[in-house]
Amino acid sequence: MKKLLRLGFSIGLGALCIGILTLVASLLSWIKLVDVYTVVSSSVIAGVYIGVGVLGMLLGFIFYPKMMRGIAGGMKRIEAKLTQVPMQDVLSGILGLIVGLILALLLSTLINRIPIPWLSMLLSVIVYVLLGYLGVAVAVRRKSELGIVEKITEAKGAEEHEETEEEPAPRGTVTGRSRKKAERQKPPAPKILDTSVIIDGRVLAVANAGFLEGKIIVPSFVLQELRHIADSADALRRQRGRRGLDILQQMQQDSNRVVVIEKEYENTEVDEQLILLAKEMKGNIVTNDFNLNKVATVKGVKVLNINELASSLKPAVMPGEDMLLQIVREGKEPGQGVAYLEDGTMVVVDSGASHIGSTTSVYVTSVLQTAAGRMVFAKAN
After folding, report:
1. Strand partners, 337
2. In Å, how far from its chain's centre is CA 350?
3. Residue 73: is it exposed, middle or buried by C-beta count within 10 angstroms (0-12/13-18/19+)?
4. What totals of helices (H) and strands (E) does the chain contain, helices first?
5. Which of 24, 77, 200, 351 is deepest in the core (most CB within 10 A)?
6. Do 356 and 330 contact (CB within 8 A), yes or no?
7. Separation between Cα atoms, residue 293 and residue 196, nearest integer Å
8. Which of the 8 DSSP states describes residue 314?
């Protein structure tokens, strides 16, 4: 099958080369620059056509794998960029393009009266390209004045009003109108992962459990940062980077919702690029970074913090509660000891230094809860 596809691609490229040559020859004759078919003999023309066709077929056969990879990569990039464009911009752009091309058609009728064929053709092409571009650009920038959004909103409001007046369907049945309404519901916001949450790894379990709705976006600049960490000279950083790449690969295998997009903002830090991308895609940032959490929130971007989720799911520890803990090391202050709960929460035990290595009864004095995590303070009994 692959051989047939390769052969078909080669023949198609050869035919395309012949078609381009024919178009160029016809164009030269039409603008009266040179009449190829009268100046050159038919045998030479036939030889040139055959040579160009064979050359195109050979190029297609030799470079078929590279060309197909390039075409597939280009299509994926175009698809990724188009999915980021709001539907309002698409509709406005199409309307502006139509208006621009109509104006260009009217102007080209006047331009075609120029007695110099090549000049009239050149001016017509310039007018079509210029007015088409201006039509799209102006329509997208002034979309709020076109009334498209208002008409869509009014139509939706009228349908919802009709639904409220409609008699309720029997319980357990789904009406066609209700089904259409469900289909028109706004899709979940895309979830944009940062480097810290990928390396942490808990996002894999959260995604598999269904707590992350919508597309899971991994920007190219985050992937590049992961690669730099994985190639670090420091053994610990290198291990963390490779763990992050393994987690990302596992997420792609477990779900088809994980999308790597080619997007970068020049001369901008990774955190700022994440915020800009979230605003552009109207998405949420998923992170463990405390500082990114604060900055993104201030700039109006919704943040999903895995640490906050984990903290909210931890068993509650109340002041005054007694528990048995093993003191594992000394704390920062004199006389303090450090222990850990089963979920990994650090417990700072006052007067616990003398109990290092042993299991001791303590009672909780206070609990400090932040977006960065939770810390428990206790005192040895």
Report:
1. 330, 349
2. 49
3. exposed
4. 15, 11
5. 200
6. yes
7. 12
8. S
